[in-house]
Specification:
This protein has 17 helices and eight strands. The chain is an alpha+beta fold. The strands form three sheets. It has a four-stranded antiparallel beta sheet with strand order 2-1-3-4, with helices on one face. The chain has a two-stranded antiparallel sheet with strand order 5-8. Strand 1 and strand 2 form a beta hairpin. The longest helix has 23 residues. The structure holds adenosine-5'-triphosphate (ATP) and magnesium ion. Magnesium ion (MG) binds next to helix 1.
Length: 395
């Protein structure tokens, strides 16, 4: 590359570059260094034909930059922007953004293997795995892949269940789950069409009636009040580090003002209005014992929750509780909720939860390792089950 006496003036006569000369031989590596605003990016944009020189010349292998077409430039120059921009769309679309604009006529888009190789080379593999595993698949993708995911779930349950016992809390209708929120503990299921998602379950008359029947409504309200008070107390004491505080509380940072007002209006009294009571109930239903350590859970509540769950699943939804872990046909009586069945894809949960059919117990660092192990097991299991002598190999 040969730059000779390059000059660049923008409108208003502002001269951004003046008398720039520079040669780069094939195979040579050059770093352009200078103070902020000295014109490095401007020069790079000129070299990529994104700006036109005012005077002087830039040549590639003897060819003046002005004589080269856009395709020549884009096939030979790669730019990494100073301020990277991620477009709305899939990761693939973002990665192939520029490639797709130049590959149509002149070449094919990179194959998946090539894309994975690049992802590995730049050290993004673990993040991609984490990102992919922890996303809730869009409805159509979820239903397209439902069968495959259930098959993998069944293989994991059959062959590697024990291996992951320390790190995964598998869904079990008989046990209280320390790693699931109280609502999940109560119904071990999801709201069909998400109408009664966690913040709106209190609108479900049937659910609320059962909560009352088990006298859990008042206990949960009280728990919500404890969470509210502890969270607000901590915010006032600590002043800093609010972010980490909201990881150990079921209140979200954006709700602080609302709950502070509620607490002030309540004083020492009990909530009288339904709206106030509902707001406290929501905090309690979102509460995950193992994570929201700001407040402890009374062991008596756990036992009651499991009893209410049993009632809810057997009497309301119609699950055969003597045989709950077997894949059974979905009961039809109660159409608002769909229990977590081993044979049914959970539309509102991540791919990871669907594969392992449970919650991850371990902290973030260890869970990254676990995710890799799970994927490795899945690949191995799928490979082995396709092999002829799979039974003997698996043993
Ligand atoms: N189109 C323009 N019109 C007027 N001024 C411009 C224009 N583009 C860039 N500049 C100015 O030209 C100067 C050089 O900018 P440039 O972005 O090339 O600097 P840089 O060396 O890349 O700086 P940094 O290290 O901060 O990235 C800056 O003062 C910038 O504000
Ligand atoms: Mg710059």
């Amino acid at each position: 590359m040969d730059i000779e006496k390059a000059e660049f003036t923008v409108s208003g006569g502002i001269r951004l570059l003046e008398d720039i000369s520079l040669q780069v031989k094939p195979g040579e590596m050059v770093a352009l260094v200078g103070t902020s605003g000295s014109g490095k990016s401007t020069l790079a944009l000129l070299m990529a034909q994104l700006y036109d020189l005012s005077s002087g010349s830039i040549r590639y292998d003897g060819h003046a930059i002005g004589s080269l077409c856009k395709a020549d430039i884009s096939h030979n120059i790669t730019m990494i922007a100073q301020h990277p921009y991620i477009f709305t769309g899939t990761v693939r679309e973002n990665l192939l953004y520029s490639a797709s604009s130049i590959c149509d006529e002149l070449c094919d888009l990179p194959v998946d293997e090539k894309i994975y190789e690049v992802i590995q080379n730049v050290g993004l593999e673990d993040d991609f795995l984490h990102f992919g595993l922890n996303m809730v698949m869009p409805k159509d993708e979820g239903s397209q892949n439902e069968q495959k995911i259930i098959q993998i779930r069944q293989l994991v349950a059959e062959y590697v269940h024990k291996k992951f016992l320390d790190d995964i809390e598998f869904f079990d209708v008989r046990e209280f789950s320390e790693h699931s929120c109280l609502l999940d503990n109560l119904i071990i299921g999801e709201s069909v069409n998400e109408t009664y998602s966690i913040d709106r379950i209190i609108e479900h008359i049937g659910f609320m009636a059962i909560l009352k029947k088990f006298v859990l409504d008042q206990e949960l309200e009280h728990l919500g009040w404890k969470i509210e008070q502890a969270t607000i107390d901590h915010v006032h004491q600590k002043k800093e580090g609010h972010k980490s505080l909201f990881q150990v509380s079921s209140m979200e940072a954006g709700e602080l003002i609302f709950y502070t007002r509620l607490l002030l209006s309540l004083g020492d009294g009990k909530p009288q209005m339904t709206k106030e009571r509902d707001a406290l109930l929501v905090l309690a239903l979102r509460y995950i014992p193992d994570q929201h350590t700001l407040v402890d859970l009374d062991p008596g509540i756990k036992e009651k929750i499991v009893r209410m769950r049993h009632f809810f699943l057997s009497e309301v939804i119609g699950v055969d509780m003597d045989n709950p872990l077997k894949g059974q046909a979905l009961p039809t009586q109660f159409s608002d909720f769909r229990p977590f069945f081993p044979s049914v894809y959970i539309g509102t949960r991540s791919l990871l939860i669907n594969i392992v059919f449970g919650q991850i117990k371990c902290g973030m660092q260890k869970s990254r390792i676990l995710e890799k192990e799970i994927i490795a097991c899945c690949f191995l299991l799928v490979f082995l089950t396709r092999s002829k002598n799979r039974r003997s190999i698996l043993r």
